[in-house]
Amino acid sequence: MKKIICSIPIVGMNLKIGAIFRPVNWARLGVAFHSGSYLAINEEYRTSMESEVHYIDAQGNVDAPGYTYHFAEPTDKDGYKLGALVSDYYIISPGKIILSMALVIKQMALISVDFEQVNYSRMKMSALDFNLDNANQAIIDNFRRTNNLRVGAEIKKGIFSVRGGAIFYDNPLASEDFFINPRNLSLSAGFGLNQGAFYIDFAIAQQKTQRNDYFYSVPDDFSKVGAQLTIEKTKALATFGIRF
Question: Residue 224 region, left (φ>0) first, then alpha (ψ -120 to 50), else beta?
Fold first, then answer.
């Protein structure tokens, strides 16, 4: 039996700043900056091998008394145990810029729009004991800047409310050769009842993505070695709350 023990504690931090402006009573304008998260990762990887061989008696019974147990760990050429493989490295995730706007219509309706830009090619990896220049170059070559959009609206009438929204996520990959429609769109709708002492909310969201998956590369005609996938996800959420 082979045992693999992997421990990966992660410590990270980032910075988020933003501001909201109200030029008129019925409008809100917002801007925010989220720095990339600085993650310090300490990865410890350990392997071992165990074997247990049971004896068979003259009649072929496997349950004969006695067995041999063997335990082994990786060693170097001189037979000294290598112990755990420890790697310390650092990752900086991409930051984002968010622009937002909200309109309040006669205290009955709300319309909000969020525009978000994320540059995935700015991700970076580093380490003290080994070189990650190739990995960083691969990030630059294979990722790009994305523009995401979120739109939502809500209408209230007495204790009832109706809401809906849409989210558009751009493709973070620099090349779209392997995808039919790498971007995905999510639509949601719901309603709520708020009577002060208690509230009920129900929402449903649907997401659809289409893409091509290729098993291996054929320069002349990718369609002969791929599969067209349509992925649909539907989520339903109900919330019930009581205020004390």
Answer: alpha
